[in-house]
Task: inverse folding
């Protein structure tokens, strides 16, 4: 499969990512935005404290931003990112459909995951068999039976990762929302798939001992990976070597130019920490987009 090249690739379709795309594209560089807009925390919310606008539905605001970015030349691919690596003079991004993209600079605007199952045992057994990051914790479950929960690309790719580590892998989801290529890999991989099912409870006293599904079935597992949506900041940034906030290890550390510790990589929006406000996301996206475009232009040769 051929690899497409862009000057700036933006991960995330929320207000930070879209604003970065608008400003980068206006600088006449090739811009690609990756992600599924309904995954943005703003998509189903309403905004009434953003300067110069009255109350507006989040989905409408994002839709307008998407149109603006496209008007200035940015391309939009409605798919998630599975992997980002450094390669040659820039970065290589692999998407859930199997496509590969080369970029001179990156803008990380994936937001943060606020999604939890909200089932009995989840909070109590966090760190004792319950994890929210396959890429971070897979090695602790070598040779064990595990379950991955989620209907998006993070869960499906996570199940494939665990297949190389664990002795038995279960994937549990209600309705899948992934590209056919990724779904096909899971179907052919020897993973026990429980489609149309939800987790009722996570079982165990001091450590995870199993899962109860909504049909009453009990799965005997030692690890439960809750991966709801797309891959998050910790998973993607960690593989690149991007520095996280040392106090929380949840947010990406940036300077006043939204630059990370890695040259050519910028971050903006919720992924850089609170407050969780559209105004902050848009302001940081503006700076990140301009800086990423300037960096890419410098490396055109």
Result:
């Amino acid at each position: 499969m051929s690899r497409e090249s862009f000057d700036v690739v933006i991960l995330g379709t929320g207000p930070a990512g879209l604003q970065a795309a608008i400003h980068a594209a206006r600088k006449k560089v090739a811009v690609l935005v990756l992600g599924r807009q309904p995954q943005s925390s703003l998509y189903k919310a309403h905004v009434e404290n953003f300067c110069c606008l009255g109350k507006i539905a989040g989905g409408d605001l994002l839709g307008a931003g998407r149109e603006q970015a496209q008007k200035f030349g940015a391309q939009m691919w409605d798919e998630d990112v599975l992997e980002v690596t450094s390669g040659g003079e820039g970065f290589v991004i692999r998407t859930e459909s199997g496509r590969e993209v080369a970029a001179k600079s990156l803008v990380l605007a994936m937001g943060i995951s606020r999604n939890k199952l909200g089932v009995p045992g989840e909070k109590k057994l966090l760190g004792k068999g319950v994890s929210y990051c396959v890429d971070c914790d897979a090695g602790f479950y070598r040779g064990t039976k595990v379950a991955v929960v989620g209907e998006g690309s993070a869960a499906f790719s996570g199940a494939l990762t665990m297949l190389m580590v664990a002795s038995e892998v279960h994937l549990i989801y209600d309705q899948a929302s992934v590209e056919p290529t990724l779904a096909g890999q899971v179907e052919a991989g020897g993973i026990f798939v429980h489609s149309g099912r939800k987790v009722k409870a996570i079982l165990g006293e001091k450590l995870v001992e199993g899962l109860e599904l909504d049909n009453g079935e009990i799965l005997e597992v030692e690890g439960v990976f809750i991966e709801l949506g797309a891959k998050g900041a910790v998973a993607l940034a960690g593989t690149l070597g991007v520095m996280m906030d040392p106090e929380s290890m949840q947010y990406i550390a940036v300077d006043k130019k939204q630059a990370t510790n890695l040259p050519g990589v910028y971050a903006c929006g919720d992924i850089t920490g609170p407050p969780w406000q559209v105004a902050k996301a848009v302001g940081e996206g503006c700076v990140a987009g301009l800086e990423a475009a300037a960096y890419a232009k410098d490396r055109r040769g």
